[in-house]
Design goal:
Strand order of the largest sheet: 2-1-3-5-7-13
Distance between the termini: 81 Å
Radius of gyration: 24 Å
Order of helices and strands: HHHEHEEEHEEEHEHEHEHEEHEE
Number of helices: 10
Helix content: 25-40%
Length: about 350
């Protein structure tokens, strides 16, 4: 008799179920009653056996939701997840998934790789997802973890395996730094309909109010580089002259750089700029002051949480919040007299 069959028999005997039931649990069959599944896994643990070692499909799906492309930040999350999976002899499958974020869970059509009989064993949700997909995966008993900063709709992070960046605190630190450098007229550039921008805006707004300053926001509804470019063009056309701008991510900041440079406005001589996530900070000129996130570490923890959920489905939900790091570069200058706003420089061109 093979070693594998002996292992299954040992677990079956202790759990008082058939070897076929143990095999179904080992392969992640969602039709097994949760109580029976728990009994089988408990028996395996007592015997020091990891049933997932015998699983036919040792693959986790990295599901990138509602993104036109894989940007630098998502690429680093993917690399972190892939590295962790490879270390533990699991494969990672990339899936791009687009859907209407308002679709009810019952009407949500999940990717085939998540629902077919030989489906993947677990899922990592990154990109932008609705709260509905969390309910749909839970209903189908698919083990998964999720990036907690990017969920649209009402949900309760404490109920899920969730890894987040502390973007609210990180945005507050960026804003505090700008204020400490004498800036009083500071605008936030980010589409608050998107959850990660909204969370950064929350940290910014709280800090501005605590400093006795008025939070100011761009109303442009776009994303990334295009958002930054259009927001600056609109801001300049309106006649507003802030002394500092806080971009909701580094890609937004790169679009802002382009628009400011086209208009003859110098960074940081005429206006200071800060960003968030530090994916492009070193590549921009002048170097961008920004809050550094740690997407590769985030991806590794997401993979860890998903594998742990596969191996121990009865565990309480796991949450982890990863702090940010303020990185000071040349894009912010100190104002000695802290003017409320700056006049348009003579060399500027806003036409």
């Amino acid at each position: 008799m093979s070693e594998n069959k002996s292992t299954l028999r040992d677990v079956a005997r202790l759990a008082k179920v058939s070897t076929a039931t143990v095999s179904r649990v080992a392969n992640g069959n969602p039709q097994v009653d949760p109580e029976i599944q728990a009994a089988v896994l408990s028996a395996a643990k007592k015997l020091g056996i990891d049933l997932t070692d015998t699983r036919k499909n040792r693959t986790i799906a990295f599901v990138l939701g509602n993104r036109e492309r894989v940007n630098e930040f998502q690429s680093r999350i993917l690399l972190g997840a892939e590295g962790y999976c490879a270390q533990h002899n699991w494969d990672l499958q990339f899936i791009s998934f687009r859907n209407d974020l308002s679709t009810p869970p019952a009407n949500l059509r999940l990717p085939d790789a998540l629902t077919r009989p030989n489906r993947v064993s677990g899922v990592i949700l990154s990109g932008t997802h609705s709260a509905g997909i969390l309910a749909a995966l839970r209903e189908k008993r698919v083990p998964f973890s999720v990036v907690g900063n990017n969920i649209v709709g009402e949900w309760h992070p404490e109920e899920f395996d969730c890894v987040s960046t502390d973007d609210i605190r990180g945005a507050a630190e960026v804003t505090q730094y700008l204020v400490s450098q004498g800036h009083r007229s500071i605008w936030f550039i980010g589409n608050q309909r998107l959850p990660w921008f909204a969370r950064c805006a929350q940290g910014y707004s709280q800090t501005m109010k605590e400093a006795g300053l008025e939070p100011r926001f761009s109303e442009i509804r776009s994303e990334d580089r295009e958002l930054g470019y259009l927001a600056i063009k609109s801001l300049l056309a309106s006649g507003e002259r802030p002394t500092a701008l806080f971009a909701g991510n580094d890609e937004v900041a790169s679009g802002m750089y382009q628009a400011l440079q086209q208009s003859g406005i110098l960074i940081p001589d005429d206006i200071s700029v800060a960003g968030f996530n530090d994916t492009l900070g070193e590549l921009l000129h002048p170097g961008l002051t920004t809050a550094r996130e740690f997407p590769k570490e985030l991806g590794g923890h997401l993979a860890e949480f998903t594998l742990r959920r596969i191996q121990e489905p009865g565990l309480p939900p796991q949450q982890l919040t990863i702090p940010t790091e303020l990185v000071k570069r040349e894009s912010v200058r100190r104002l000695e007299f802290a003017p409320v706003s700056a006049k348009l420089p003579a060399h500027a061109n806003v036409s």
